[in-house]
Amino acid sequence: MTDHEEPDDEQLDDGLELAAHPLTAARLEKLEAVRSGGRDPYPVGFEREHTAADVRDRHGELEPGATTGDIVTVAGRIMLHRSFGKLVFLTIEDHTGRIQLFASKGDLDEALFELIEASDVGDWVGATGEVITTRKGELSVRVESFTPLAKGLRPLPDKWHGLSDIETRSRNRYVDLIVNPEARKIAVTRAVIISELRRQFENRGFIEVETPVLLAEAGGALAKPFETHHNALGLDMYLRIATELHLKRLIVGGLEKVFEIGRIFRNEGIDSTHNPEFTMLESYEALADYNDVMAMVESVFASVAEHIHGSTDVAYQDQIIGFDAPFRRATMLELVNDALVETVSYETPVAELRAIAERVGVKVMGTFGPGKLIAEIFEAVAESKIVQPTFVTEHPIETSPLARRHRDKDHVTERFELIICGSEYANGYSELNDPLDQRGRFEAQARARAGGEDETHPIDEDFLRALEYGMPPTGGLGIGVDRLVMLLTDQTHIREVILFPTLRPI
RNA sequence: GGGCCGCUAGCUCAACUGGCUAGAGCACUUGACUCUUAAUCAAUAGGUUCCGGGUUCGAGUCCCGGGCGGCCUACCA
């Protein structure tokens, strides 16, 4: 905040201009009443000594009407306010839960009691007093001193029905978090998942690095980038669509085991599983191959599931997803042939594959070769049927421009995708480290682009130059973190696991 | 992108095929109350019915355009 940002009418007037609206005008008056009573309505800090959970832990089971002699100091937001003539019950909430404040007119001087009486749901307050239970047995803090900590000028949503409109919840996430415990729980679980992922990689000897978001060329994936401009350089730039090419440069540089948990930006549609900015974990390990990476993925997913749920069985919607290793493994071709009545291979005439692809609803373009056709057929007929964690392996060379050719088989790469409930959760391969092959793959992509395909990989000369210094055999991995959070928090919409999802401004 | 649906008080929701001054609960304001648990009771107040046009004696409701969102669908993770 800079000192010239004076609040003006423009900033306050968002349909609920504070002084003009009766709901907020009343709270503004109370704010002034606090000030005129000689108190700062927004004081500096507060020495909270006990959380709601602390109080509950220390006095779990007390008889109604009990006194403890235990003096505590708590702070939180008022969530419920029940006022009698000479008694006030306030239910306050902190990040650990709720605790009741019990204020009796007989205990307090008149001005302080009136201050408590005039406090509103939504205000932050602190209080000190003895832990007691009321006659009805509710654990409470019998208020001896009381400090307004921050006035809530806007009313909270209905205390019973809460805030349910998904758009309002997404646009006003702060309100959602105040009133919906589930929203807070997801935010916390996301943090725990990312922390656990980081720990898993660190424990395996990976170091966490940061690579650029702003790039002159966006590669490492087949996706449309966001464009921006650097004024001083006079340069059009792109936001990254993957971290892959930079992380592999670090492998060339000898860092050997690196990972990055970072924001990725793709200029594509928004729906229940896609946000324009999302979080990807990528890792690269020198001297590993895709089998090593698959083994690591099994272990990491099982560990994270266990860490969150205490079990490798995770309930997702109506399914139980089992994360016990090993996961099922099947080649893309096997899965395609399981789903089709005929049997195909990469030797099948293109005309035949094209006919099958069109039959199953693929929009076929003239540039599609056998590999692309088989990959499209896979996505059309097989992918959505996979429920339990499955490594789909041996993707065609055509659709995997950064993956190594299979050591024994023609046409396919040493690649896998981890599919769960029809969606991709991880993608990895034995990295292509032959710079001449890599150049040829890039050129094939350029030909596809010239043929009209819009999602192709650009030629990155500096990346090729890095490979020319010699990249060791490397196993690489990408994990869609948001998707994993959705899976482990049982959410069907990505906006529920991203605190501030991309929305059109109103 | 295409199709379907939605938007009413701060929040959650009503308002029949177009028809009395657009209602209710919670929240707010005022009053009563020393044991509440979504406190209760009483009274008051609160509206650009998303926005802009149109049809009509009359529009929250019907028509046209726009905004934002949801669901389904296609593509990317």
Structural class: alpha+beta
Helix fraction bin:
25-40%
Report the β-strand fraction as a percent range. 15-25%
- Count of structural domains: 2
- Biggest β-sheet strands, sense, barrel: 8 strands, mixed
Protein architecture, described:
It is a single chain. The protein is an alpha+beta fold. The chain folds into two domains: 9-156, Nucleic acid-binding proteins (OB fold (Dihydrolipoamide Acetyltransferase, E2P)), CATH 2.40.50; 181-327 and 388-496, BirA Bifunctional Protein, domain 2. It is built from 15 helices and 18 strands. It has helices at residues 9-12, 22-36, 52-58, 110-117, 166-171, 173-179, 181-203, 244-252, 290-309, 332-339, 350-359, 370-381, 435-450, 461-468, 481-489; strands spanning 67-83, 87-94, 97-104, 124-133, 139-150, 207-208, 214-215, 227-230, 235-239, 257-265, 277-286, 313-316, 319-322, 328-331, 390-393, 415-420, 423-430, 474-480. It has an eight-stranded mixed sheet, with helices on both faces. Strands 1-2-3-5-4 form a five-stranded mixed β-barrel. Helix 7 (181-203) packs antiparallel against helix 9 (290-309) and helix 13 runs antiparallel to helix 14. It is elongated and about 90 Å long. The two termini are 24 Å apart. The model is unreliable at 1-16 (pLDDT under 50). The protein binds one RNA strand of 77 nucleotides through helix 2, strand 1, strand 2, strand 3 and helix 5.
